[in-house]
Amino acid sequence: MSDRLSPQERIALLEIARQAINSVVQGNSLEPLDLAHLPLVLREEGASFVTLTIAGQLRGCIGALEAYQPLALDVQEHAVAAATEDYRFPPVLRQELPLIDIEISRLTPMKALDYSGFQELLNKVRPGVDGVVLRDGIRRATFLPQVWEKVSSKEEFFDHLCLKMGARQNLWREKQLSVWTYQVEEFNDEEK
Hints:
Elements: H1 7-25, H2 40-43, E1 47-54, E2 57-63, H3 71-84, E3 100-107, E4 111-112, H4 118-124, E5 131-136, E6 139-143, H5 154-165, H6 171-174, E7 178-182, E8 184-188
Antiparallel strand pairs: 1-2, 1-3, 3-8, 4-7, 5-6, 5-7
């Protein structure tokens, strides 16, 4: 991603996410963003994922693969969703707020990956660089590039991605799936 956010723009997005999570978890209404006072890049359409952790353990992660609204609103919306709507976790509790670490991933547009056979697929993906979307009919799942840090091989990455999609873990070896890749600009609370 060539047009990286400035440190001030990153901090602004992290503050937007933190304020949104704090407001909603404490039972307050979400303050509307004043887009006119934000830098241009935060007002432009952008896609993001917001990941919440406590002591390094996942606590919620929600996002969008394609841009459809201003980046600042996208981050705000997905911060709230990660705290309250991730089906894998109960909603964040008030007492957890001081423990929550926020990571934001700003996505590049997705690109279809052409391949023939699973070996070529393995050769084309770049661990630690590419986020991957798999689709089989109506089922679809993605892993951000950060997930590569948690697996020992490309095969394990695709096995787990198939399971996340609700399919057999070896489906990617048995049939041609639709595959897209994207990259992210990732930053977190440590930037403040």
